[in-house]
Amino acid sequence: MPAMPDTSLPLVVAALLAAGAGAGFAGGMFGIGGGFVVVPALMLVLPLIGAPSEQLAHLAVGTSLATIIFTSLRSVLAHARREAVDASVLRSWAPWVVLGTVGGAAIADLISSAMLASVFGAGVLLMAIHFLMPGFEVKPVATEMPGGAVRAGLAGGLGLFSAMLGIGGGTITTMVMTMCGSPIHRAIGTASGMGALIAVPGVIGFVVIGLGEQGLPFGSLGYVNLPAALAVIVTAILFAPLGVAAAHRLSPALLKRVFGIYLVVVGATMIAKSGVI
After folding, report:
1. Closest Cα to residue 12, out of 229, 199, 203?
2. Collapsing DSSP states into helix, strand and coil, what is residue 85?
């Protein structure tokens, strides 16, 4: 296993800690896992510790999922203390989310790093619509969450999509719950717990598909870089409760617009750098 280069170590650590702070706050504020912040940061930082370009996107996604386990748990516990988590939704969606996540990891194993980066960029641009367009605000279309085949399809698709992007699926979960009549704070709180359901099987999948790969940087277990994940987790755990507090005290309208602009920049940049299009 290659040794970690020490020439850029302070810069690497500072960037990862900053990414963790942003991911933790965004996770608490919007009920997302923080992958939209962590994956782009890892794409910039991991080459500094020796990540090869042909494996970069896989490492970024796998490592992001590892951080989401902890940020999701931290956020959902904070929301639960405010009685803003619907545990029945998490229980009923869990089996289908896990199956979809396993499928997402399997698909990621079949495509190149450049293609995975472009998929991430396209997904980010789609999610930006939710944050940027006031006219796109979801309206209730039902009074309860769907069951049966509809639930299986939505939950499975959520897991598949999120595993490929290295995200916690919070935005999609929040949209579905609000469309089904859930109050926004309860939807955000429940969505924050969806990240762990996605991240645990997702991490296992990216570890498995990355085992035996040559040239991975120091501290990598398959496509999960443990030192990078740890650095992000440290500040993410600290900042997640601050995002939760902001979500319950402030109108998130302005922050949603700012975050939406960030997503557009990130999505366009990832697609441009992938070279696929």
Report:
1. 229
2. coil
Contacts of 107 (CB under 8 A, 6+ apart): 160, 164
Give 3-state DSSP helix, strand, coil % of the chain, rounded to 5: 75, 0, 20
Between CA 37 and CA 30 the distance in angstroms is 13
Give the residue from 127, 103, 96, 120 showing the smallest Cα distance to 197: 96
pLDDT of residue 153: 92
In this structure, which amino acid lies at residue 96? W
One-letter-per-residue 3-state SS of 93-109: HHHHHHHHHHHHHHHHH
Q: Which of 26, 23, 209 is nearest to 104 (CA)?
A: 209
- Tokens representing residue 143 in the block: 């009074």
Question: What value does the CA radius of gyration of the chain take, rounded to a whole number of Å?
Answer: 17
State the average pLDDT for the chain. Answer: 83
Residue pLDDT, tens place only, 35-73? 888 888 888 888 888 888 889 999 999 999 999 888 888
Cα gap 76→166, rounded to integer Å: 18
- State the DSSP string of 111-146: S-HHHHHHHHHHHHHHHHHHHH-GGG------SS--
DSSP H or E stretch at residue 68? helix 56-81
Task: Give yes or no for a contact between 232 and 62, defined as CB atoms under 8 angstroms apart.
Answer: no
How many C-beta atoms lie closer than 10 Å to residue 137's C-beta?
10
Between CA 161 and CA 159 the distance in angstroms is 6
Cβ within 8 Å of residue 79, ≥6 positions away:
31, 85, 188, 189, 190, 192, 193, 244
